[in-house]
Amino acid sequence: MAKKISGLVIVLLLMAGMSVISTWAFFIDVEASSSNVLTAGTLDLKTDDQDGVSQTLIATNMRRGDIVGPEKITLKNSGSLTSSSIDISFSYIEDDSTPNPIDMSADDTASFITVTILKYDEANILTHIDDHNSNGYIDVYDLATTSNLTGLPGITSGATRDFEIAVQLNENVTGQYQSDGIDITMTFSLKQ
């Protein structure tokens, strides 16, 4: 009986050893190829033919109903690779004037700046934005809180696409917002 068990143990050890050796050989198998070429390329986004991927929307001394825009930003891929997509994001910071009798927050101010035009390559992308603050219209607050402006069509190497935006100070804004302001930044990111 002991001979049978020791014989089985030896057979099992041999089988285990062979499987380890064959697995090891499989993982270290090296092949050479002289016809493969690896080339690195670049994505280089320019906005209005300038370096930098951000632009600021400037709107000062707006009154109820005033419209700024449409402002056009030309996006150019100056790199050697075609981008698969582009992402657009928005942010803002408070930039109040003086005197400022009642200090409203940047979020409050952004919710009264209605977005009337939002286009990328002539396509209306305003329809991609949800009314996050549920005030009945798309505003700058909604732009800054959306994640729906990702994966837009990319830009071929050397080509341009236009981005357009227009905003309007809502007719329902109250005097509490006098001298309250925000700086709106648009950031564009090419993806490979």
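That was protein one. Protein two is written in the same sequence-then-structure order:
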Amino acid sequence: MRLAIGLIAYLAITSMVATLVPQGLSDEAYGTMYPNLVAELVTQTGFGHFFRSILFMIPSFLFFANLSACTIKRAIREFRKKSGRHHGPDILHMGLMLLVIGSIWSFSGHRQGSVVLAPGDGVNLPDGAVLHLDDFRFERYDDGRPRDWVSVVSILKDGKPVKDRVEVRVNSPLRYAGMTFYQASYEEVPGLALVDEAGTEVVLSQGEERIINDVAYFFMAPEGDGALAGMGSGKPKVSTGRAVIRVGDGMNVQPLKAGPGDMVGSMRMVGLKTQLATGIEAVSDPGFPLVFIALALIATGTAWTFAQKLKEGV
């Protein structure tokens, strides 16, 4: 019991101290943030990577081993009783054990990334599916204040929709294949507007390739820093700036520079447009379900223990 109390106190105190130290920085970064003595202490003791250091891992392992031994010993003793069993603490201890396992699993397996997509763009997911942005809306109140960002996305796998036109909002993420997609931000990105002979307009995001009538059009970049000059925020506006485009039919591929009115393959360039793009953050946390179950067991064990104490008049 004394060992467990000591380990809990140590882990609680050191974890609180570690939260005051930015984690995962380089030794040089700590040297610029703190005086030499403090920076040396942080780097040499491992406090800069505390939750991966032996200062945390060894005491955590000892606590888990001590807790497991106590839980098994107590559970066997309670099961041998013919009456007056108290299994609330056993459930509580089991929850604590699962919480330790789930936390380590969550910490080691946590993955996080972000991507910026304009309408029509897509990004490949780890399982081979494609997250496609169908539309993006920046909703405002009547007085102009931002109200919500809404990304309308579809997930396609083997060419078939798995999720079709799902709205991802700030407080309404999308969950798929162990990943959670959050609406994180927005920004304005340049787009290349082309029009065909029938007057149908196509807008390519920077870095996007589109095949039109067996010809591939790839928008490389605006030409020069002033290509988007005079284009304000808000609704898309057309710039008279020039663009660098790669055009080819598979046999002949060439980069070229074009401005509004110029022919690009069979298309005519309308101009450069700013368009709203969404920032989507993807998070994968494999340990979260186990942590959730652990917290449920801890709550159940605590409630059961108190209920039995009240029933016995203690």
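The radius of gyration is 29 Å. Keep this in mind for the problem set.
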